[in-house]
Design goal:
Blueprint (H helix, E strand, L loop, with lengths): L2 H16 L13 H10 L10 E2 L2 E6 L8 E6 L12 H8 L1 E3 L4 E9 L9 E6 L4 E7 L4 E8 H10 L2 E12 L2 E12 L4 H10 L2 E10 L6 E2 L3 E5 L3 H4 L3 E5 L4
Amino acid sequence: MNKNNDEDKILQALSGLSKLGPIIPSKGGSNAVGKLMQESLKIAHSTTKRNSLYNFTVTATSSKLNSSGRTNIFACVPNWKSSPYKSSKELVKKFGREDLSRGYSNSLFCTVTSTGPNGFGLVLRANPEKRSLQEWFVSKDEESLVAIWDISKLKEKLASLEKTAIVTALPVNIGGKKGFHYRYVDLLEKPELINFLELLESGAITIDHLISIKVGQKAAREQGPLFKVRANAREDLYKNIKRIDLMDL
């Protein structure tokens, strides 16, 4: 397969999108920029696998290239057998909160970093000796282990990544409505494990929990945990980056 041909094809598609100018999404929300791009490029949205176009995993952000906004790397559940908590349902039952206004009997929507406990008391800790990434609960009165990710599994996830295209859209006000102009793209090679672990320790890579149980239901819905990297740390994670102004093509 001609890799350059794949690159040419995705750049042609993204250039065409950029030349449409600002587009107003039909729906708002934090994921509007990504969903609008997928609709415009006719990429079938999936919460269980990567959104792919011409052998590139393609995502969109409205964060500036030098900002602390985050983009997805991959989703990976802990090693439940090694973890004190054995499922996403156990996590949300223990650490989640009731949110009846949104129809949840329990929900755990939060970002976890290594820089300190979040509002739920959760914090990440890398453990090189045990070859694991650990999540802990920390409060004034206690510290307890919550979940464990094996470094070998995270390495597999990184190795399985396709090349990535991260499209940056500029927010534009159009008649009082928020639109997006898809202007830039970063074409990325596969990331290195050592860089990944260093960025986890520094807090530049984070984990998002997206777990919920609807009122009247027993099963938990899990959309993560999502490993994300800050936009201004991409160059520290990936081998090579091609940064392109789509309006120049």
